[in-house]
Amino acid sequence: MTQKKVAPAGTPEGANVPPSYEEANAGCPGYSYTEGAFLWDDRNIRRVFIRKVYLILTSQLFVTGAVVALFTFYAPVRFYIQTHPGLYSTSSFLFFITYLLLACCGDLRRRFPWNLVLLGVFTLCSACMLGFISSYYRSESVLLCVSITALVCLCVSILSFQSKIDVTSYQGLLLNLCMLLLLCVLALGLLVPFGHVPWLQALYGIVGAVTFTMFLAFDTQLMMGNKQNIISPEEHIFAALSLYLDVINIFQHLLQLFGDSRE
């Protein structure tokens, strides 16, 4: 049933009646700039959103880099964490819990300061897990993978901002890459008890690095807001979380490819 729009009291007859909230936002994924009102698709708001996301992401990567460097280069810490694997299990558990809360609870990740507290715990747990893994590789290999990851992320970010190719429309390709990555994980899980399979581990590293590089481009263009699919400027925590996971997964798979284990 269609309701007739009633003009506010005191409105002259024949005057334009402002649209309702539902009419103004019908068919729009976000807001837009209309008749002097700043709404979500406004470029200034989008720029502020992007700056906020990259500020959070930079803080996360700084903390992660510091923890990885401590676990990798400082021998007493490296020895301690390798002899206390329970710390890795605890970090993994907290990582999983905080990720579920941030990814699934939209109201919670938009509520200050709990969103920053959860993101901080998530980042520390992720950094500890990554540092634990990196401690089993030579320092030179870790530095090499960090450098390659930084170069890849810089190139992908520049191309995502400059390219007219809409990566957000390639969801089918991303799904296929994820399925291929899952098959590699299952194959590794089945063959590991029978011995080391170098070519399969190399394939897993290559597929994983390519998959999360594509996800990095996908999430970057979602954040930009000028493609087919966009993310709301309210979701700066979720955007930073997505980009951070892309970066650390690229690093992890590059470590799988180029990492040289300690004797």
Entry summary:
The protein has 263 residues and is mostly helical.
Question: Overview of this structure, please?
Answer:
This protein has ten helices and no strands. It has 263 residues and is an all-alpha fold. The chain has one domain. Helix 2 packs parallel to helix 10 (236-258). The longest helix has 31 residues, at 43-73. The chain is globular, with a radius of gyration of 23 Å. The termini are far apart.
What is the average per-residue confidence, as pLDDT, rounded to a whole number? 79
Distance separating the two termini:
75 Å
The proportion of residues forming helix, as a percent range, comes to 55-70%
The general outline is globular
Q: Please work out how many helical segments DSSP would assign.
A: 10
Helix-strand layout with pairing:
Layout: H1 21-25, H2 43-73, H3 75-82, H4 86-104, H5 106-109, H6 114-134, H7 139-162, H8 171-191, H9 198-224, H10 236-258
Helix pairs in contact: 2-3, 2-6, 2-10, 4-6, 6-10, 7-9, 7-10, 8-9, 9-10
What are the defining features of this structure?
mainly alpha; disordered N terminus; 263 residues; 10 helices
